[in-house]
Amino acid sequence: MTRRARAALAASVAGGLVLTGLTATSVTAGAATTGASITIGSAVAPPSLDPTSNASAAIDEVFDYNVYQHLVQLDPKGAVVPVLATAYTVSPNGLTYTFDIRQGVKFSNGDPLTASDVVFSLERADAPKSTYPYAGLVSGITSVTAPTASTVVVKLSAPDNQFLYNLAAYSNGVVLDPSAVGSIATAPVGTGPYEYTSQTTNYDVVLSANPTYWGGAPKLSTVTFRYFSSPEAENSALKSGQIDVIDNLPNPSDVSQFKGNSSFKIVSGPTAGKIQMTINNTAGPLKNVLVREAINYATDKAAILQTAGAGYGTVIGSDNVPGEPWYLPSLDNPYPYSVSMAKKLLKEAGYPNGFSVTLTLPPYGYATSAGPLLQAELDAVGIKTTIKDVAFPLWISSVFLKSDFQLTIINHVEARDQGNYANCSYYWKYKDCAEVAKLLNAAQKATTTAEEISRYQGILKKITAAAVNDWLFNPDQLTIAKSDVVGIPGGISESFDLSHLSIGGSLSSSAKSEGYAS
Amino acid sequence: MIAFIARRIGIVIVSLLGASIAVFTVLNLLPGSPAQVILGQQATPQAIKQLTAQLGLNKPVWRQYVDWIGGLSHGSFGLSYISHQPIGSQISQALTVTGPVILFAMAVGIVIALPLGLFGALRNGKLTGTLAGVISQIGIAIPVVVGGLLLVIVFAVETHVFPSSGFPGWSQPFQALRSLVLPSVTLGVVEGAVLSRYVRASVLDQLRSDYLRTARAKGLKTRQALWRHGLRNAMIPLVTVVGLELASLVVGAIVVENVFELPGIGSLLLNAVNNRDLLTVQDIAMLVAATVLVLNLLVDVSYRLLDPRLRNTA
After folding, report:
1. Residue B85 covered by a domain
2. A346: domain range?
């Protein structure tokens, strides 16, 4: 459930963050089948075609980077690279960003891309009446102007060293054609390598090569995303040849069905997801930091990674995954698995005989498979755990919006989401949120990278010491494909980046080094 | 007859109004704000307020109801909260899958039920007749999901005669029909088992009736008497049952579409519920209610055509 999620919010609680880049100038070497078609299987159909109206990662999977492009996007290593901008500069005080707009770019309807289209798009995201799901991230913009036909200047009210990253990673950054935006819900128009062709609601979305693409002819003539509500049906569709790729295998343990079979290739790549047992910091005994530490000690994270992630992933001990600039390996297992330590802390906290809790599980494979294991582990230290399964909308309304829960398991997929610990109304109700908000503000205004990193690490250390949550593991994303499919986007991506995908042929070395699988 | 039909149509309209109030009330009590689900976890309170206003969900509840019913009465299903696309065209796209599945399933059901039920009635009390009853019991007892998976294993995974799931669209008519065979048979077998019980009971009723005894006394064999006099009468209750069962097949189709991954009304409804696309859910619920009521109306009318005794009663 990293790249897409069943409902819109899952997309953001459980959706992934775009880290797969698109470098349109790198070309594939070798002979790919030209004009080929491909069908990609996926679990969740996009609830809408408009990424600016809905947080669902299923929309970004299809449309972001493929149909719509940004001024800057992320490469697979998470670095910000210029795409519809050819270059950008930041003023020394960090308040003014100047973008050079790429010339000769056309939208798929033939309209040329102009600097004023970029102004229109950014202002649309930041407008007072904006309903962009991530509008909050661009609220620091005070003005967007186009002083010349080929430059756009963005002014911020305060320095924000995450501004470019957010522009690259979130739908706030998509560049739209003002003359086509009226029909954005039914006829998406962008500058990307593929254009929207058709949709059967909840069943498939068809894209085709954009003939006017500025980066050269795309390698596939048609790309179909097909959606399966049952993972079994998706697996058999790949085996029987109905589809060519399974994007983000829903049940990691199903990988055994394809392992060792030369007809298929398995691509695993890291994600920004944090599968965690969230602790309500205001619920009875869970208020006590000693109890939360005991819960962390009682958890055998390596075993949970084996069960819920088939071993694909990394054990984590904070809101901290490999790949983030401030990643601290020393925080990976600060509370090593120890039943006796957990019992000792419970006794110290005044619960020598334990207590009872309810573990609320949303209907995702990782949660329902990790749940019973965590239940047994907590029972073993005296915390009597009852499992309650809920549908996702109910999880949203009771757990997420009303904090009506004690423990729950969820994948927080957004990269660099430490800001959640600074949000006092966020569902885990962390006591020291206001203090983290101050630390975060200082970290965002840091003008050197070293300062930025050390300030962020300070936040990580603080939340880990407070055992705010029981962080479990950072899952890998598994893509299964027929062995002749080349250029599968590795890395962390909400977009299934099609820029290098082909049937047959070989990848350029630059695409390989960016993380696309050959 | 005309007064009868007019009165029945009046009842249909009143029932639909009642159903619309019930559907609207229940869905508006569901937890989960559509705007929050749409915009996700990082949405600002202003954006949620703005979207709620855009969707018209900040209006008084009675106003939302009147707007919805007003639209429906003009044949407008409205725009989906989530996809911002017309719900009417999504529903009609889905009906091109669900409609054929239901009709094919009913056809399969009738083809199974008539011989099985007749056989069971004629052999009533004998071992073979009991066997026919047992077969229909088994058919009723097997859940649609299990039956569907068994068919998939035999005809899709092992022999590749039919596709295991999916629907290529009517632009490829042959492939489209092929992909509807297993879902229709899955649903139809259960339907056949259910209907055969009614066929058997209805035929037995006629066999025990006075007029058939008279016919036999005049020298006709049981089978001849049934064929010449009894069948038409036996079919009258069956028309009712087939009509009502068509409505229940709509529900069965939701399950079957899920098993076979078909883009029909069932998957539209399930996804709309999950995404809190309340308007779509309301529209589909009303459509199903209207279908059931209209089928009932047709059943009542056809009853009168089949049974002359009822024609002059009100």
Report:
1. no
2. 274-475
CA A84, CA A121: separation in Å to the nearest integer?
Answer: 13
Q: Which pLDDT score is estimated for A435?
A: 96
For the CA atoms of A499, A504, A510, A512, what is the dihedral angle to 10 degrees?
100
Task: Encode pLDDT of A139-149 as tens digits.
Answer: 899 999 999 99
Q: Least CA distance to B87: which residue of chain A?
A: A201
- Are residues B84 and A185, on separate chains, in Cβ contact within 8 Å? yes
In chain B, how many domains are there?
1
To probe the interface with A, which of B28, B30, B37, B81 has the most A CB atoms within 10 Å? B37
Residue at A442 is within a domain: yes
Q: Å from B165 to nearest chain A CA?
A: 7
Q: With respect to residue A290, please indicate whether it lies within any of the assigned structural domains.
A: yes
Angstroms from B82 CA to nearest CA on chain A: 6
Three-state secondary structure call for residue B23: helix
| pLDDT value of residue B32 | 66
Q: Which residue of A has its CA nearest to B81?
A: A48
Strands A470-482 and A264-270: antiparallel
What's the sign of the alpha-carbon dihedral B88, B90, B96, B102? negative
> What would the mean pLDDT of B291-302 be, rounded to a whole number?
84
- Say if residue A251's pLDDT is above 90: no
Tell me which residue range forms the domain holding B133: 92-263
Q: How far is A398 from chain B (nearest CA, A)?
A: 8
Identify the band that residue B312 occupies on the pLDDT scale cut at 50, 70 and 90. Answer: low
For residue A21, is pLDDT > 50? no
Asked if residue B130 belongs to a domain, the reply is: yes
**Percent of the residues in chain A that have a pLDDT greater than 90, as a whole number:** 63
Query: Which of B37, B41, B80 should we substitute to test contact with A (largest number of A Cβ atoms within 10 Å)?
Result: B41
**Chain A within 8 Å of B89 (Cβ-Cβ)?**
no
- Unique residue bearing structure tokens 């509370």: A335
User: What pLDDT sits at residue A20?
Assistant: 32
pLDDT digits (tens, 9 = 90+) for B127-174: 888 888 888 888 888 777 777 778 877 777 677 778 877 888 888 899
**Domain assignment of residue B221, yes or no:** yes
pTM of the prediction? 0.82
B:254-283 residues touching chain A, CB 8 A cutoff: 258-259, 261, 263, 267-268, 270-271, 273-277
pLDDT digits 0-9 by tens, B68-120: 999 988 888 988 888 888 999 999 999 999 999 999 999 999 999 999 988 88
Which residue bears the tokens 């975060």? A440
CATH number of the domain residue B159 falls in: 1.10.3720.10
HEC-encoded secondary structure of A249-281: CCCHHHHHHCCCCCCEEEEEEECCCEEEEEECC
Measured between CB atoms, which of B32, B40, B166 is closest to A11?
B40
Question: Is residue B302 in a domain?
Answer: no
CATH of the domain at A436: 3.10.105.10
| Domain count within chain A | 1
Long-range contacts of residues B141-148, Cβ cutoff 8 Å, at least 24 apart: B142/B189, B142/B190, B144/B186, B144/B187, B144/B190, B144/B252, B144/B255, B144/B256, B144/B259, B145/B255, B145/B259, B147/B186, B147/B189, B147/B190, B148/B182, B148/B183, B148/B186, B148/B256, B148/B259, B148/B260
Chain B nearest-CA distance from A337, in A, is: 31
pLDDT tens digit string along B7-33? 889 999 999 999 999 999 988 877 667
Q: Please state which of the ranges A5-9, A87-91, A225-229 shows the lowest mean pLDDT.
A: A5-9
Residue A237 covered by a domain: no
- The two structure tokens encoding residue A13: 């609680």
- Contacting A residues, span 96-155, partner chain B, CB-CB under 8 Å: 128-137, 139
Please answer yes or no on whether A12 and B40 come within 8 Å at the CB atom: yes
A424 touches chain B (CB under 8 A): no
Report chain B residues whose CB lies below 8 A from the CB of A47: 38, 82-83, 271, 275, 277
